[in-house]
Amino acid sequence: GQVLARYPLPACKGPTGLAYIPDGRLIAACGNGAVRIVDAVTGAVMAGVTIGAFPDAVIYDPKRALAMVPSGVSGTLTVIALSGSANNMVVDTVPTQVGARTGAVDTLSGRVYLPAAEYNPPAGPNQRPTPKPGTFNVLVLDR
Q1: Alpha helices by DSSP H, 57-127
Q2: Of 93, 90, 71, 70, nearest to 81 (Cα)?
């Protein structure tokens, strides 16, 4: 475990989720509603796409060559096709639930699971909202 390189992510404020794609790409989700697709060897930004606000994860489905980014504030899941190293495009934006910002994919079925809850407003400035008791649920998305 040693650091081999550091790569800047221009126009990526508050990087959160990161996924490594075996063909040598990194998919980075940014808190400011952007995704940066980076060459894992050189650090060059290959592409950028706009997503919903405040993501927390990048979910990679290798069987379908898709990266999915849930965004908690906008309540959306952005689906990015990764058909080739130069082909990185948004193919769908699916409404989910406000607060759903992380998840997992079942690579056999393609189903995406997003935990979510309803939230109370933040108690004060610079504080996070808190989940309302009894509102936890798991969204199951299927094509």
Answers
A1: none
A2: 90
Quick: pLDDT tens for 80-115: 999 776 678 999 999 999 999 999 999 999 999 999
Angstrom CA distances, 9 to 3, 23, 47, 74, 85, stand at 17, 19, 11, 22, 18
**Rounded alpha-carbon distances, angstroms, from residue 23 to 17, 27, 40, 84:** 18, 12, 9, 9
In Å, how far are 6, 45, 130 from 3, measured between CA atoms?
8, 19, 35
Tokens representing 71 are 């965004």
Per-residue tokens: 99? 């607060």
Give the Cα separation of 127 and 19 in Å (integer): 28
Hey, what's the torsion of the CAs at 128, 74, 32, 118, to 10 degrees? 10
pTM, two decimals, is 0.91
Q: Give the angle 35-103-43 at the CA atoms, nearest 5°.
A: 30
**Exposed / middle / buried, residue 31 (Cβ in 10 Å: 0-12, 13-18, 19+):** middle
- Tokens found for residue 8: 């800047």
